[in-house]
Design goal:
It is a single chain. Helix content is about 25%, strand content about 25%. The protein contains nine helices and 15 strands. The strands form six sheets. A four-stranded mixed sheet has the order 10-11-15-14. It has a three-stranded mixed sheet with strand order 3-9-8, with no helix packed on it. Strands 1-2 form a two-stranded antiparallel sheet. The radius of gyration is 37 Å and the shape is rod-shaped.
Length: about 325
């Protein structure tokens, strides 16, 4: 980039320290970010120039080289011997050196290439996406334990998560002037715990993810978007109910006489207390289905409640019960 003033592009004085440079870059990058100026090629070019200026001035070695050979206000200051006579190979016949750039050369960019080799080249070879939009922060994945009852109706649950943020005291540099930042102990980051209220939408279940967009780790360069928090639902085993897709399954005990004769059974379910008509001659292991008493489905409706009947026989029979069973036995012969 020829004859451009990096300090002017960032809007800082030549005496600005690293904290001022970093702060100015973040502020201007947010204003010029392509997402705010979709289709505006002029804004995109300014954003690229801003990124190049920051890469140079935020690196002490590159900044030193730029201050020595750079352009300020359009007045180019060439290195010593730049205008010396050249031989046919472009070298100074007395001391060697660079060939003077022509109007069609890369100009000042080529000088950076010569000064820094792979460093200058590597900056230009960064992906276009990263240059234009900044580097995205990483995601944070956490687990949210739930009970079956939590899935029955949309509700909100609270969860506390440790979140890392850029230290605002030092703008993520880890120092203030020559002193180590007391807030982050030189790391440039601070970690604190936040409480999030998470709504569990209808139709979700075990291992499903809820995404809290933009609440994850911050962008390493301070310009790209933050990552997300990925909340993975983990439904705990229930002592009474088993999840089968959007259906719920449970065992229901029925006395032997009621299983034989049939009748109404009342019992508790996750959806409340209900009554079920037990058919006569029900045997242990018979499956009954209660429509619409399972878990909610995405888009509306509910699964079913599956009843696994377990016929029970009294363990300690009274004399009268023994007599009745004996009669039943004799009738069955």
């Amino acid at each position: 980039m020829a004859n451009k003033d990096y300090y002017d592009i960032l809007g800082v004085a030549r005496s600005a320290d690293q904290k001022e440079i970093h702060k100015a870059y973040r502020r201007r990058a947010r204003d010029l970010h392509p997402d705010k100026h979709k289709g505006n090629t002029q804004a995109e070019e300014k954003f690229k120039e801003l990124g190049e200026a920051y890469r140079i001035l935020s690196d002490p070695q590159r900044r030193k080289q730029y201050d020595l050979f750079g352009s300020v206000g359009g007045d180019y200051a060439p290195p010593p011997g730049w205008g010396q006579p050249r031989d046919a190979s472009g070298q100074d016949p007395f001391t060697g050196g660079w060939d003077e750039p022509s109007s069609t050369s890369g100009g000042f960019e080529d000088l950076f290439e010569a000064l820094w080799g792979r460093f200058g080249r590597g900056a230009r070879e960064r992906s276009q996406s990263t240059q234009m939009h900044g580097e995205r922060g990483s995601d944070i994945e956490v687990e949210l334990p739930l009970m079956v009852e939590d899935l029955l109706e949309p509700k909100a649950k609270q969860i506390r998560i440790s979140v890392t943020r850029r230290c605002e005291n030092c703008e993520g540099l880890g120092r203030n002037d020559a002193q180590t930042c007391s807030a982050c102990k030189g790391t440039g980051k601070v970690t604190h715990r936040r409480t999030f209220k998470i709504r569990i939408p209808a139709g979700l279940g075990d291992s499903d993810l809820i995404r809290l967009a933009g609440q994850g780790n911050p962008s390493p360069d301070g310009i790209g978007p933050s990552g997300d928090i990925l909340v993975r639902l983990k439904v705990k085993p229930h002592p009474k109910y088993r999840i089968k897709g959007r259906d719920l399954e449970m065992d229901l005990e029925a006395p032997d006489y009621q299983a034989a004769l049939g009748g109404k059974l009342e019992f508790d379910t996750p959806a409340g207390r209900i009554a079920l008509q037990l058919p006569a001659g029900t045997i242990s292991g018979k499956k009954l289905r209660v429509r619409g008493k399972g878990l909610p489905r995405k888009g509306g409706g509910r699964g079913d409640l599956l009843i696994n009947v377990i016929v029970t026989i009294p363990k300690d029979l009274t004399a009268e019960q023994k007599e009745l069973y004996q009669k039943l036995k004799n009738v069955g012969k």
